[in-house]
Design goal:
The protein is α+β, with helices and mostly antiparallel strands and about 550 residues long. It is built from 15 helices and 23 strands.
Length: about 550
Amino acid sequence: MERQTVTATINGKKKTYDYGICLAEIAKEYQDSQKYPIMLMMVNGKLRELHKTLKKDADITFVTMADEAGHNTYQRSACLVMLKAIYRLAGNDGVDNVVIHHSIGSGFYFTLEGSVHVDEAFLEKVKEQMHQIVDACLPIKKRSVSTDQAIEIFRQHRMHDKEKLFKYRRVSKVNIYSIGEFEDYFYGFMAYHTGYIQQFDLIPYDEGFVLLLPTRKDPETLPAFNPQPKLFQVQKESEEWGRRLEISNVGELNNQITQMGLQNVLLVQEAFHEAKISQIAKEIATGGTKKLIMIAGPSSSGKTTFSHRLSIQLTAYGLKPHPIGMDNYFLNREETPLDEFGNKNYECLEALDVKQFDQDMMELLEGKRVELPSFNFITGQREYKGNYLQLGPEDVLVIEGIHGLNGKLCRSVPRESKYKIYISALTSLNVDEHNRIPATDTRLIRRIIRDARTRGSSAAQTIAMWDSVRRGEENYIFPFQEEADVMFNSALIYELACLKVYAEPLLFGIEKDQPEYSEAKRLLKFFDYFVPVPSEAIPTNSILREFVGGSCFHV
């Protein structure tokens, strides 16, 4: 006899539903108990879209816009709504391509190629169309087609990046999302209908426009636009290099790997890094007054390798660099402040002995002989072991630490004596024209590989702590990005094809019953896009060696 009911356990309470009930119906029933809109559900530990049905007993938790997966779903769905509005307004003949480039503020930067002129008037019309689509609460439908069908569909739609992408697709099926007659491919889940996309704006910027969206911290309020021009220019420069190499997306990278090999691209990318580092060193050396070279950036940006390579270039320009790790100025462990969860907060500025650091730096600048500390991470105590330093005319300090751009650090040191560098892995590669690769994904993958190699940490352990790492970055690093004198992008256009070889076995080691399984599954699906390449040809001084091993530096 066919089963008539299923039991869902929600918030520890069991409830009976009709067999095959749509998850959207359950979400509607419980929405009032949630602060923010329910975007997805975890059903027996698996992430599910709301159009799915319940056909067996399940433990259910709700994923809202304040959760990482829910927030990403909102962003993707808003992009789909915007694309439908643009194509509806301009028509297929008026649009050659709409390309997502990178995040900017709390939104995304796009360019539009075609006969339409992108200005404020055009964007106002697009917004009108978007509001109509949102107000109509149109269903966002999902269908699965064969890879060959998908290639033909997107050839007809003139979305050629997707043709290249699916050429290397190992799985036989592709999920396509649609709003009415408009259809597209997206890497990740979508909202149940367009009515979820309540907050957005379109702002002209540079050669394109920004789709402004709410933040995860405040999912129902649209923040002010914060363009961060220095960061934008670095990202734009990296994308221009990708275009010169004819590698702007994963399909083009795969073509390069399979048809011509990666050697030339690898050498050009590494040469570009070396040229940028040399340029920074020359600016410091010819500036004359710079004594404190302060390097900051988020986790897994390659700060340590960058510091070594910069020191070599500074030496080539006649300077004598001395590395100083800001971590050596940690307060003794029992003095470390606590975060909002009652855990020791090693990320905040107050975890450092700012007063002592300031005093030591000033005395060094005054020509005094100073004993520098080292922090014992086993005992949790700061120690002094006779490490004395006195600066001469050619000596400079290369200081690495997450607070290097914060004006509260070295407040007594004149600004003209400081040179601030921001480093991050700002991935310029797209999956395709409508699917970007978040920089945080590249950094997470780097960290998973490095933690396993150098600390014996499992991929699950690294993923579990990543949210905490991200919170620290958002509070203590990103707000000071624009304070930098120069920015360095440590991302390499080829690196994900290399990292795949190292990351996949670690991710496969996460079991289905572990909380980190859904994130591991997402990353494994992401790696399916890439043709792998071996790492033997990577130079030993490459930033990538900091993560995969084999570096000529002590990292």
